[in-house]
Every structure is written in C-alpha cells, then in structure tokens.
Amino acid sequence: MATIAGLTMAVNVKEMLQSVTGLRQQAQCNNQLLASRVSLHKNSLETRRQPVCSRRHSVVMNVTTTHSSSPAVTQTLSEQSNQSRNPDLATVLVSEKLGDGGLDILRKVSNVDCIYNLTNEELCAKISDYDALIVRSATKVTRKVFEASKGKLKVVGRAGVGIDNVDLEAATELGCLVVNAPTANTVAAAEHGIALLTAMARNVAPSDSSMKSGKWERNKYVGVSLVDKTLAVMGFGKVGSEVARKAKGLGMHVISHDPYASADRARAIGVELVSFDDALARADFISLHMPLTPTTKKVFNDDTFRKCKKGVRLVNVARGAVIDEEALLRALDSGIVAQAALDVFAVEPPKGGDSSFALVQHKNVIATPHLGASTVEAQEGVALEIAEAVAGALAGDLAATAVNAPMVPAEVIAELTPYVVLAEKLGRLTVQLVSGSAGVKQVKVVYKSSRDDGDLDTRLLRARISKGLIEPVSDAIINLVNADYVAKQRGLKISEEREPADGESGVPLESVSVTIQDVESKFASARGDHSRSITLEGKVKDGVPHLSKVGNFSVDVSLDGNVILYRQVDQPGMIGKVGSILGEDNVNISFMSVGRTLRGQAAIVAIGTDEDVSDATIQKLKELPAIEELVFLRL
Ligand SMILES: NC(=O)c1ccc[n+]([C@@H]2O[C@H](COP(=O)([O-])OP(=O)(O)OC[C@H]3O[C@@H](n4cnc5c(N)ncnc54)[C@H](O)[C@@H]3O)[C@@H](O)[C@H]2O)c1
Ligand SMILES: O=C(O)[C@H](O)COP(=O)(O)O
C-alpha cells in the first residue's frame, strides 16, 4: 500500500507544484538573489528547473517572534505579521527555535513568523496560513495538522535528523513535501554521547548535587574507568561512528553492531563489527545510535538485558522508545544495568506517573532533556541546512534531503506501477536473506526487456529496489528523489544491467533479478552463480508481482503476502504435512509452488501466506525430517 500511496502522491506533488507556479516563479526570482547563499543539492534524479523569471522583487525582511505561553500575545503578534506581509511571497511558520543564519535565508524569500510552544490545536488553527512549516523534535506534525492546512502547506522542514514527529504518510497523501537536515548535528550528538558516558562513569551529576546540598562525599562517588573497557556502539551510522572514533581516543575497545554497516569503514577506525548478542555479551558500556523504526522499537527489553554482562552501563542519545523503559527500570533495580545516562525518552517531556519520569528519578540514572543537538554550532548548521532545503523547495527545486516527493511523468508511473511494486518486494525479500555482519555493499540488478535502452526508465525501479533493501534496516525514507543519495551515503553500489528479451516491446519488462553480492545467505539455496551471493528474480503476471526464481531454482509464487521458502528432499506427502502444520496455526496459504532440479532430488518450495506465521510454527516446519532449510520472509 505504501508503494501505491507513494506513486499516487508523485502525481499529486507534481500537480501541487504546478498549481503554485506563480509562487515558484516569484521564489525563483528571489532565489537568483540568493544564488551565493543557497546551494541546492541536486542528484541525477531531479528533472526540472523552471525558466528563470526576469522581474526582480523587493526583498521583505519580515519576521515576527513570539512564545505562545500566552494565547493573547500570540494572536496579537500574528495579526501584526499578517498586516505587514508581502502577499507575493510565500509564508513560513517556524515553530521551534531556529538559528539566525537560517532565518536570514528564509526572510529573503518569504514572510517568516516564529511562534513557539504552540499546542497542537493552536498549530492546527494557524497552519492554513502557511506554505511552509519548520520544526524540531517537539512539534508533532500530525495528520490533523496536514488536514487543517487545507492544501496550503507545501513543505515541512525538520531542522534535525529524526522525522518520527512528522506523519510522513499523511504528508505524502496530502501532497506535502518533507525535508530534513541529516548531517549538521552529528558531531553535537556524538559529543553529547561522550559527555554522558564520562559523566556517568565518574558520577559527575550526583556528586555535584550532593556538594550543592553542602556535603563532601568522596567515598560514595567512586567511579569506574573507561580505559581498556569494551564499548558496544549499537548503530554505526553518522553519530555512532563518530562516538566510536572518540571512544577509541579515550582508550576504549570499541565493538559495534549494525546490520547494515560496512566492515571496511568500521575496520578503518579500528572497530570490530559483531552480532547483536555478541555486543551484549561483551560490552561493559553500551551506547545506542540506531533510528527508531518498527524493528528497533523496544529492542532493549527484559530479554536483551538478560543477555548483558551484569553491571553494564547504558547511554542513549538516539530515541527513548528503542528501550522498553519498564524493563530498564527492572534491570536497574536488579543491578543488571549499573547505571544509565539518558538524553531521550519514550515520552518527552516525561510526566509524573510514566516510565520516562520514573527513569529520570532513579538514583542510578543521569538525564538530560534531549540536548544531543543543542550546541550553538549545531543549531546554526541545522538552521542553514534546513533553510536552504525549504527555500529551494519553495522555488520548485527538490533538495537532496527530501524524504518524500517522487517526480516522474504520470504516464511512466502508470505503466511501471506493477513493476515498481515487484522491485521493492524483491529488494525487501533479498535483504532478509542476508546473514552475518559483512553488510550489503554491492547489488546487481538485471532487467530482462525487449525495449530499447531509451524506452525503459529504470529510475523508479532502482529507487524502489533501494527502498526495499534499505528501509527494513534504517529510518531512512527512500523515494525517487533521495534513493541514489541515501544508497551512496551508505556505501551501497547498485549496478544495473540489461538482458535482451524476445517478447513484445509493449510490455516494459519480462523479469527483474536482484543479486546481493559478497554476503553470506541464511538460505543456501538462494545463492546465485557465486557462492557468496543471493539472487531472487521476479515477474509481473496479470498485473501481479510474482517471485519466479530463488537462486537457480524456478518457483512461481504471487507476492501479495508473506513468503515461506524451504528446500526439501523431493518426496510425496510433504505438501499435506506442511499444510496441516500451517492450518493448525490458522495460516492461510495463498499460493504454493515447487521448483526442483531432477526427480527425487532437492526441491525448493515457495509458499505465500496471508498471515504472519508464529515462531513456534516455523520451528515445527523446520523439524520435519525432509526439510533441509527454511526461512520465513515478511513483505
Ligand atoms: N539526542 C539527539 O539530540 C540526537 C541528535 C542526532 C541524532 N539523534 C538520533 O540518533 C540516531 C542516529 O542518528 P544518525 O544521524 O547517526 O542516523 P544514521 O541513519 O546515520 O545511522 C543510523 C544507523 O543505525 C543502523 N541501524 C538500523 N537498524 C539497526 C539495528 N536494528 N541495530 C543496530 N543498528 C541499526 C543503520 O544501519 C545506520 O547505520 C537517530 O535515531 C537520530 O534521530 C539524536
Ligand atoms: O533527530 C535529531 O536531529 C535530534 O533528536 C535533535 O532533535 P532537536 O532538533 O529537537 O534537538
């Protein structure tokens, strides 16, 4: 569904941008004035720049700032700003503190109102006055906000990395572009991680408060040393790798778990990539730097803490909800976790009665109120990064940091729709077959088509394959605009090849195959032509994506649910046994296909299931004597 919604919105975003041609031309004129300030990043997927307008307009320096603790004050200032607005310019609402450099950029192309601490109701009441909204992490840009804008809001700029406070699905559905500022606060977040690590180890916060209450407790606050201790960095992205580098400087032994990180990049700074369980078992200190995604939500829970060394110390500057906070409270009480240093919470700000609040109050916890990105330097950098992206978007450009906004001609989208669905599903399935900690770096895509090169636009397909490969292990949102950018940033190289097909050129593609190279597979039969590669091939049949090959085995299973793949010794009676085990778990089989090499030899069976299949049922299937290997893949 997400794919189809994304495609539908590709058209809507285009229409939306066309409908504001006047605004765009105006902004483009002003953009000329900004040419030296606003460097708009373009990637190969961007398609357009409108003709430059010859008229020049006066620049309006119109900024109003207010804190909305008093509604009356907000209203008065808002009315004043309305009176002095230049009606020819776009309107931008800045709802959280933004650095002056960014405001200067925005002021030159738009009417800017800075109104802080708005409640969600107040934001909804005002939003239909604005073409753009700039937020940090405190403003919740919910579906209600997008709906209340009644189509006026064209761009949301998140002045920071995490976009978990913006309802991206609603933004896309309602034709609003969302951009973020992914790089400018990396160093600040890493520095804060190190500050928490050292402050926690040496009891800086509690001993300071003890002294302020007149005490001198030298024996109570004996700390632990960092040198020669093992730090596990969970998430080796921008912030995690910077924390690792700094911790090495403190003499720590650094290991990291990140299912997507490049081993070469880790090795270059002397970091060993390890499995999740290995990281837990070996760490004296754990520092969290993964995004909040459905997979990472509460990934630190009772089970996880049980696998840690007793007395481990935990730092979190990522997102509060990656920890089950109730479980952390239990682990702190039992001594499994000796200390925790937390910058982020499941509920921000924590309120009396919730687990976040109980953690802040715990004697072995030190806490800061989401300060990771809060340095003067980072906030100036973030402000410039987001202002450039928003100014560019208002001018009709697509910034490299756009997180939703495919721009492809409607007729290409219509023709390729079932193939892009197939492409994303192939990416999503193939990456789930990877095992080990080597990381995905090289992917080869082969399009079998009877079309001439110029008649097959593979950008959408490639973008959707990237989306399928990257999204399950990241909080990155991949679309046509940012797919190449994100893949490159992650060191992922996607090579594309064409294989001629005999069919009619009316059909864009006969098949697509995705090969992840130089990785181990958790399903040996999916190995392609090389032992360290994984290949899946798919086709579109009657408008529906099908899996057509697993490694060198032919199968035929419709990709409209989840998939069980297994290799069995070819023998009668197996289908009945597998069917009844699934039936006992109320799992409906939507499709089944058997692909074998020779009679009586190994066969690959692909089963489509409507429902999720429980771990217990998967285990029962694996225990059938004729089954040699089995995987369950979610779509
Ligand atoms: N406290 C703050 O003020 C602050 C400031 C900046 C960033 N952040 C947060 O820090 C986190 C990291 O930011 P970043 O800029 O480094 O992002 P990033 O995308 O560069 O890095 C995230 C890394 O996590 C990895 N990952 C994904 N799933 C994982 C899993 N299950 N286990 C381990 N690793 C996994 C990804 O492969 C990626 O390398 C984000 O949640 C971000 O919102 C917080
Ligand atoms: O994701 C981020 O960029 C950080 O959590 C910073 O959030 P902030 O902009 O609210 O400080």
UniProtKB/TrEMBL annotation:
<dbReference type="GO" id="GO:0051287">
    <property type="term" value="F:NAD binding"/>
</dbReference>
<comment type="similarity">
    <text>Belongs to the D-isomer specific 2-hydroxyacid dehydrogenase family.</text>
</comment>
<dbReference type="InterPro" id="IPR036291">
    <property type="entry name" value="NAD(P)-bd_dom_sf"/>
</dbReference>
<keyword id="KW-0597">Phosphoprotein</keyword>
<comment type="pathway">
    <text>Amino-acid biosynthesis; L-serine biosynthesis; L-serine from 3-phospho-D-glycerate: step 1/3.</text>
</comment>
<keyword id="KW-0520">NAD</keyword>
<dbReference type="InterPro" id="IPR015878">
    <property type="entry name" value="Ado_hCys_hydrolase_NAD-bd"/>
</dbReference>
<keyword id="KW-0560">Oxidoreductase</keyword>
<dbReference type="InterPro" id="IPR045626">
    <property type="entry name" value="PGDH_ASB_dom"/>
</dbReference>
<keyword id="KW-0007">Acetylation</keyword>
<dbReference type="Pfam" id="PF02826">
    <property type="entry name" value="2-Hacid_dh_C"/>
</dbReference>
<dbReference type="InterPro" id="IPR002912">
    <property type="entry name" value="ACT_dom"/>
</dbReference>
<feature type="domain" description="ACT">
    <location>
        <begin position="563"/>
        <end position="635"/>
    </location>
</feature>
<dbReference type="GO" id="GO:0006564">
    <property type="term" value="P:L-serine biosynthetic process"/>
</dbReference>
<dbReference type="InterPro" id="IPR029752">
    <property type="entry name" value="D-isomer_DH_CS1"/>
</dbReference>
<dbReference type="GO" id="GO:0009536">
    <property type="term" value="C:plastid"/>
</dbReference>
<dbReference type="InterPro" id="IPR006236">
    <property type="entry name" value="PGDH"/>
</dbReference>
<dbReference type="InterPro" id="IPR029753">
    <property type="entry name" value="D-isomer_DH_CS"/>
</dbReference>
<dbReference type="InterPro" id="IPR006140">
    <property type="entry name" value="D-isomer_DH_NAD-bd"/>
</dbReference>
<dbReference type="GO" id="GO:0004617">
    <property type="term" value="F:phosphoglycerate dehydrogenase activity"/>
</dbReference>
<feature type="region of interest" description="Disordered">
    <location>
        <begin position="66"/>
        <end position="85"/>
    </location>
</feature>
<dbReference type="Pfam" id="PF01842">
    <property type="entry name" value="ACT"/>
</dbReference>
<dbReference type="Pfam" id="PF00389">
    <property type="entry name" value="2-Hacid_dh"/>
</dbReference>
<dbReference type="InterPro" id="IPR045865">
    <property type="entry name" value="ACT-like_dom_sf"/>
</dbReference>
<keyword id="KW-0028">Amino-acid biosynthesis</keyword>
<keyword id="KW-0718">Serine biosynthesis</keyword>
<dbReference type="Pfam" id="PF19304">
    <property type="entry name" value="PGDH_inter"/>
</dbReference>
<dbReference type="InterPro" id="IPR029009">
    <property type="entry name" value="ASB_dom_sf"/>
</dbReference>
<comment type="subunit">
    <text>Homotetramer.</text>
</comment>
<dbReference type="InterPro" id="IPR006139">
    <property type="entry name" value="D-isomer_2_OHA_DH_cat_dom"/>
</dbReference>
<protein>
    <recommendedName>
        <fullName>D-3-phosphoglycerate dehydrogenase</fullName>
        <ecNumber>1.1.1.95</ecNumber>
    </recommendedName>
</protein>
